[in-house]
Amino acid sequence: MKTMKEKIEAVRIEFERKTKNITAKQLVNYPEGSLGHNLGKHLLNSNYGTNVTAEKEDVYQLLIGRGQVSVKEDIAVQYYLFGNGSNSLKTLLAMSIGLVMCPHYAGYFYKRYKDGKQALRFYDVDHFGMLHLPVERIKDTFLIR
Questions:
Q1: What DSSP letter does each residue of 17-57 carry, written as one string?
Q2: Its domain of life (predicted)?
């Protein structure tokens, strides 16, 4: 059984894993077509500014999302991640609230859940170690649809 100190340390490590101190301006300098370059363009096009730092959620949106930033797509990404094995509190809350707020998209959310089940597990991979790789290669490797 973990002590309180060990639990706090685990949460701190998890938080640090979710962010990377690299700005959108730095990301666009990666090779064109790479995860880093596309992530930088996504952050800049989303009006987050040039000095915003990348987070895992941004990577998920880029790899899983349909190219739109919307409530529907944000919720669908959480369903995809749940299908892929993520059972974090954030994922479960977003799914629950999303279904209550947008019941008319339930069929779409279920489809994205099934898509996540068919993909190879990638939600807990070090995405920031793959910034130099082409996005399509990452999607093909993990069967992301």
A1: HHEEEEEHHHHTTSPTTBHHHHHHHHHHHTT--SSPEEEHH
A2: Bacteria
CA angle 63, 64, 67 (to 5 degrees): 85
**First-to-last CA distance in the chain?**
39
Write the CB contacts of 20 (distance below 8 Å, at least 6 apart in sequence).
53, 54, 55, 128
**Residue 85 DSSP one-character state:** T
Which residue type sits at 100?
V
What are the residues whose beta carbons fall under 8 Å from the beta carbon of 61, sequence distance 6 or more? 42, 69, 73, 74, 77
Position of tokens 């069967």? 143
Residues with Cβ within 8 Å of residue 103, at least 6 apart in sequence? none
pLDDT digits (tens, 9 = 90+) for 81-104: 999 999 999 999 999 999 999 999
CA separation (Å) from 105 to 2, 80, 91, 99, 110? 40, 14, 17, 8, 9
User: What pTM did the predictor assign?
Assistant: 0.80
